[in-house]
Design a protein that fits this description.
Part of the tripartite ATP-independent periplasmic (TRAP) transport system. With about 425 residues, the protein is mainly alpha-helical. Helix content is about 80%, strand content about 0%. It is globular and about 70 Å long. The mean pLDDT is about 85.
């Protein structure tokens, strides 16, 4: 164990020197293996692990879902979703903020990336709320917290990475994220309504016009049908997540072409963005596998499992310690880095405690989602601040009631596992 702690210090030093988390984990894992089994065997393990992980068929879903999101964003479809939601509920007090949460659910089902969803809403929803004299604290907080829904609502890239790292069914993870995602959206909407009635942060928007609402909703209908097709194909067992992702890419391309909103330059940019994001994620997954191999060779995982088995602590007390550690990690790291670092140890421990792997995945995902909002890192808050020019301290103050609601929902998901497991049980 002494060598393990020394390697952790080495890994921390690499991260402090601002080395990307993927390379830091890969180098640390390779150095640890070289010390344990020699340089040549370590290089052989490195070669096999990197190839086996990077060539996994399941990983094909990642570039496809990212490309689907990029196409819809480039084709102006995501902005239209925000406009449609605002047209229906924007006229009531706090309605524009509630509409932003509703649009965030639609975007989450298409984008799969929290930062991309936050950036899209910051560019489209925030100016509209500011035009209607919304307080910047509330408006910027809403676009920040709305983006986190993309972490739980399928097709979440975080859920795909969790499924790959833990060999859990990605299809079941996607379906399990539906109810927690909707529950989170309703909780956020409830916070907005309370704030709007107790303060003057959220005045009414433009008067409701049925014709306008119907008109803008008609433009979004193909996107809704695409969401239903992708999720329905997975839920019904008609297609695997990878096949459903391919269906999503084809559908998003056809929608953009039919609506004549996609330019050739934007198409090239979408492909480039999807490739860059995919390379980053695959590198994280592959290097995490190298680090996991080191843990296996040094029997660190077995030591942790033995400690968990021998402890007299209740299993939910151990789970709460895990959740607390993940929340603290979320204050300083992004969600993919947390998964790659924590899952090689946390997942086997959770399985030893007889937790359901799908349920545990949603709990972990929900926890790292909260980390996107908490200072000092709070990645979504930084994205919103860059887009809206609202100071970070103002955004973090506005996020406090939303973070409290997120913690309440996390507690409900832990206390009542059937909230998460009911839908996957019907598949």
């Amino acid at each position: 164990m002494l060598s393990f702690f020394a390697l952790l210090l080495f890994l921390a030093a690499l991260m402090i020197l601002r080395m990307p988390i993927a390379f830091a984990m890969g180098i640390a894992g390779c150095v640890g293996l070289a010390v344990q089994i020699g340089l040549n065997p370590a290089l052989a393990v490195l070669e096999r692990t990197f190839f086996d992980t990077a060539s996994s068929f399941v990983l094909v879903a990642i570039p496809l879902f990212i490309l689907m999101a990029e196409l819809l964003t480039a084709g102006d479809v995501t902005r239209r979703a925000i406009v449609a939601c605002q047209a229906w509920v924007g006229h009531v007090k706090g309605g524009l903020a509630v509409a932003t949460v509703g649009a965030a659910v639609l975007l989450a089902a298409l984008v799969g990336s929290s930062t991309a969803s936050t950036a899209a809403m910051s560019a489209s929803a925030f100016p509209e709320m500011r035009r209607h004299r919304y307080d910047d604290r509330l408006a910027a907080a809403v676009v920040s917290v709305g983006g986190t829904l993309a972490v739980v609502v399928p097709p979440s890239i975080v859920l795909v990475v969790y499924g790959v790292l833990t060999e859990t069914s990605i299809g079941k993870l996607f379906i399990a994220g539906v109810i927690p995602g909707l529950l989170t959206a309703f909780g956020l909407a409830a916070v907005i309504k309370v704030i709007s009635h107790r303060t003057d942060y959220a005045p009414k928007g433009d008067p409701f016009r049925l014709g306008h609402a119907m008109g803008v909703s008609w433009q979004v209908l193909p996107m809704v049908l695409l969401i239903m097709a992708v999720i329905g194909a997975i839920y019904g067992g008609v297609a695997s997540p990878t096949e459903a992702a391919a269906l999503g890419v084809l559908g998003s391309l056809l929608i953009c072409l039919a609506q004549r909103t996609l330019r050739m330059r934007a198409l090239g940019g979408s492909l480039g963005n999807a490739i860059r994001a995919t390379v980053m994620i695959v590198a994280i997954v592959a290097c995490s596998a190298i680090f996991a191999n080191y843990l296996a060779f040094t029997r660190v995982t077995q030591t942790v499992l033995a400690a968990v088995s021998d402890t007299d602590m209740p299993r939910y007390a151990i789970l709460m310690i895990m959740v607390l550690i993940l929340l603290v990690m979320g204050m300083f790291m992004d969600q993919l880095a947390i998964l790659s670092l924590a899952m090689p140890l946390a997942f086997p421990a959770a399985m030893a405690l007889d937790f359901d792997p799908v349920w545990f995945g949603i709990i972990v995902t929900k926890t790292v989602e909260i980390g996107l909002l908490t200072p000092p890192l709070g990645l979504n808050a930084y994205v919103a601040a860059a887009q809206t020019r609202v100071p970070l301290r103002v955004i973090f103050r506005g996020l406090l009631p939303f973070i409290a609601m997120e913690l309440v929902i996390l507690g409900l998901l832990i206390a009542f596992p059937q909230i998460t497991l009911w839908l996957p049980g019907l598949m």
